[in-house]
Amino acid sequence: MKAQNSFDDVSKTGEFVRKPTSFHSQIGSPEFPAESDRYHLYVSYACPWASRCLLFRQLKGLEDAIPLHVVAPRWNVVSREGEPHKESWVFSDEEIGGSRCNDPLYNVKSLRELYELNDPDYSGRYTVPVFWDSKTKKIVNNESSEIIQMLNKDFDAFAKHPDVDLHPASQHKQIEELNTWMYERINNGVYKCGFATSQEAYEAAFHVLFGALDELEEKLSKSRFLCGSEPNEADLRLFVTIVRFDPVYVGHFKCNKKRMCDYPNIWGWVRDVYQWPGVKETVNMVHIKNHYYDSHPSVNPTRIVPLGPDVDYTTAHGREALFH
To answer: Residue 3's closest CA among 76, 73, 64, 88?
Structure first.
């Protein structure tokens, strides 16, 4: 069946079970050597997984070497006549939230068309991010955790900030342990709450999520960032979830036991990361709120996008004084 989306990832007992991604080639292979202006990054500002890649591209200074293509925040119909009704990522001629949402490379109208340009018989999900090779017209990779590793190390010859290493070898073990710990509990945990279709599945995910957030609050009481005095990959992978928490997940995904501003250390930390040079440019709250509230009709049938809350990530956090 074609044109799948996240709502197909719910088990018979109501749990959200995210399906694996499909493309896992690597830069540096004979087929895909590192080159400037050859590879293109397709993202949504709304998607936390894609925003990981935006962060790495921005912090490494790869804006000139890797062109960016942004889909519209609201899903639209991508199924064709005779197929079940499905919605997913599309492009638009509009400028939304200060960002152009068209595709100047091929002028495709949906991400489905890009996937089928790679393979006309593709029958999986049309997800962002997509790391695209314009030379061979192939998808290199669509797994964010692998794309960020390539952005971190494989394009240093073209980076404005080649000295920036967001996954230093000295912190590898600690970063990987943190990534594993927070993925199911927090990053994917909010989705397990929001896309659950049974009370039992929702409550189980809810308790795991807030148990992990309590642990995170304790962790961040002991150091400025997750692994010390500067943010690294683990902080960025966590940040994309936490920055969406109060504006979206509290209400839309029913993650409402506490807000992030109710956790003093997490609230200080998320503002600290947001204010790190280059980070705020990757956060587009217009796209974030319009996508979640308008694209999940089973969660929000009216598709009304709330005007609040007002969350100011630019206020002083004081964490530099707490941790010298």
So the answer is: 88
Give the three-state DSSP class for 113.
helix
The residue-averaged pLDDT of 131-139 equals 98
Containing structural domain, residue 260: 170-283+313-322
| DSSP bridge partners of 225 | 228
- Rounded to 5 degrees, φ, ψ at 42 are -100, 125
* Tens-digit pLDDT profile for residues 282-303: 999 999 999 999 999 999 999 9
Sign of CA dihedral 178, 254, 13, 1: negative
Q: Which of 260, 302, 305, 231 is nearest to 46 (CA)?
A: 305
Q: Do 84 and 146 have their domain in common?
A: yes
Q: Is the peptide bond before 309 cis (omega within 30 degrees of 0)?
A: yes
Q: What residues are labeled active site?
A: 47, 191
Cα separation of 33 and 35, whole Å? 6
- Three-state DSSP at 132 gives strand
How far apart CA 245 and CA 189 sit, in angstroms, is 11
Domain boundary among 158, 186, 207: 158
Indicate the pTM of the whole model: 0.94
What pLDDT score does 2 carry? Answer: 42
One-character DSSP codes across 181-241:
HHIIIIITHHHHHHT--SHHHHHHHHHHHHHHHHHHHHHTTT-SBTTBSS--HHHHHHHHH
> Strand 76-77 relative to strand 68-70: parallel, antiparallel, unpaired?
unpaired
Judged by DSSP in three states, 176 sits in helix
Angle at 277 between CA 271 and CA 278, to 5 degrees: 100
Do 151 and 13 fall into the same domain? yes
**Could you tell me if 122 and 116 are in contact, meaning their C-beta atoms sit under 8 angstroms apart?**
yes
Q: 78: exposed, middle or buried (C-beta count within 10 Å: 0-12, 13-18, 19+)?
A: buried
88: in domain = yes
Helices 144-153 + 233-244 axis angle, to 10? 130
